[in-house]
Predict the 3D structure of the following.
Amino acid sequence: MSERVFNFNPGPATLPYDVLQQTAADIVDFQGVGMGLIEMSHRSPEFMNVVEETEALVRNMLDIPQNFKVLFLQGGASSQFFMVPMNFLDKQKKAVYLNTGAWSRKAIAEARRFGKISVAYTSEDDHFNHVPSQDQYVIDDDAEYLYFVSNNTIYGTQFSLFPETDKPLICDMSSDIVSRKIDVNKFGLIFAGAQKNLGPAGVTLVLIRDDMLERINDNLPTMLDYRTHVNKGSMFNTPPCFAIYVVREVLKWMNKNGGITGIEKNNRDKASLLYAAIDRSDYYRGHAAVDSRSNMNVSFNLPTAELEAKFIMEAAEQGLKGLKGHRSIGGCRASLYNALPLAGAQKLATFMQEFEAANPV
Ligand SMILES: *Cc1c(COP(=O)(O)O)cnc(C)c1O
């Protein structure tokens, strides 16, 4: 095999090498049953066992209380943008949204099709460079829920403290699920596309509190009603078998590598190395305000667009790949998801220092 690079892509993103190898073997022959993983019946005892184990691992990893259901859905995190309001709103009902980036903006646009949406805070005028603190917004008394995005993948901002409210709290955790300990009890619903921290594209994890099920509108299309998937254990139709299997392997790998506590510390250490490299001089400019900095995505600029292009190219030559920023803000972005080794962040931090010295302005 060619030498494995450090993969800083924002999603789909780096996965543990051990998981890729185990997956490669199981695709051809699933644990000796004489059939490959992706040609097995989803109702076979072997695959049913995979789903049960994956759920048990997720529950354990996030310490999910018994009054939550765990679902494996399709359609990406983006389908949750409409499923949430479709299930919980109507034209008379209101929900409050915090607009902290491109993903919340898209969710707001979808939600407006179904109900009255109040945007209690937006950082759009500041190029989404921060997330609000609790005292910066007001939640309407008649809101059905408060919706926010815990980590803004493009801008590199992250809520270190979650909003406090007596309304159901709904969160898009696509880019920081299982990257840190959370108190699931604070939430009514959490969703996350798998392809950043959990596995490949193709499955969306949904955690939904039991009392939320009683608020769901009737007469929804069957596939778009959360209760369908709760009642059938995510097996109403063919689930994304392959993606669920990889999620199981990733969670097993996490348990072997310090569990959520060890992973969280490793994520903090990786981010600290890069923010230290940014703060050392004025050469690099971090996009996020310091108190909103994300441990998952570090977005930054160099003095000129030409230097940014050169930086990305020379980094790639050294095996540091996927550093181009999102097209909406340009510059560079290093995504430091769970499976990105500390050595990758160390190598990038060193490269940043060397590049600055070699390319003065
Ligand atoms: C990547 C991402 C999405 C979109 O996920 P899809 O699975 O591609 O629909 C939504 N929200 C956040 C925060 C993301 O990072």
About this structure: The chain has a mean pLDDT of 97. The CA atoms of residues 116 and 192 lie 24 Å apart. The two ends are 39 Å apart (CA to CA). The pocket of pyridoxal-5'-phosphate is lined by residues 11, 76-78, 103, 149, 153, 172, 174-175, 193 (CB under 6 Å).
